[in-house]
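Hi everyone,

Forwarding the result from last night's run.
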Amino acid sequence: MENNQSLHSYIKEELLERIKSGLYQAGQQLPTEYELCEDFDVSRTTVRAALNQLTLEGYLIRQQGKGTFVADQKVRQTLSDTPNTYTEQLAVQGKRGHVAAVDLTVVPANAAIVAKLNVKLNDPIQRIERIRRANDEPTQYEISYIPWHIAPGITKKQAEHSLYTTLRETFAISVAKTTESLEITLADERISAHLDCELGMPCFYIETVAENKDGEPIEYSRSYFRGDKTNFVIERHYAAGDAL
């Protein structure tokens, strides 16, 4: 568990991974609060706080007298692509962009990573934590996962620039497609610490899977954006005569 992550935030993330990896399916009833207390060896108050936040974020449904159930999957919306890096996008807006690498570690692939990156359980994965700033204010906290066999030994210097540029120029791996899922979440202790925002502040949450030209997943990332500091533009192009 991360040092600045509270128990209920840790449990929330663990339950969320079980939902996203398919261990808990949509419509399935979760174990009881008592069973979760036994599972995580924590108090009922701690478990309840984690369940309440997942309910607020739309992952769970609490039914009085029946229990807690996994909610149906949310509607997915594709975002527009852009060839520009983060600093280039900010420069156009007259802002200074900066990327700071918080942590670089190698971790074994868990069930959630296996589902996203098509690797084997416990395969080595490079985990890269970064914070993006605009005019010295943190706006985005990102965790990227890249299989070790794809790009072994990415350095701190490389991580503080465009990862996609590093993959292309250093490892001869080009990103051909990204699939992004956008949701709204609330800042917990970990997110508020990294983004310097209040607990419970609404944030954009984006999960991204990047693929090469052969359709092989080469990167999976989870990004949190301050809701009061960020917005998104979606641009679509239609052929003549196309209709919604």
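The chain has a mean pLDDT of 87.

Cheers,
N.
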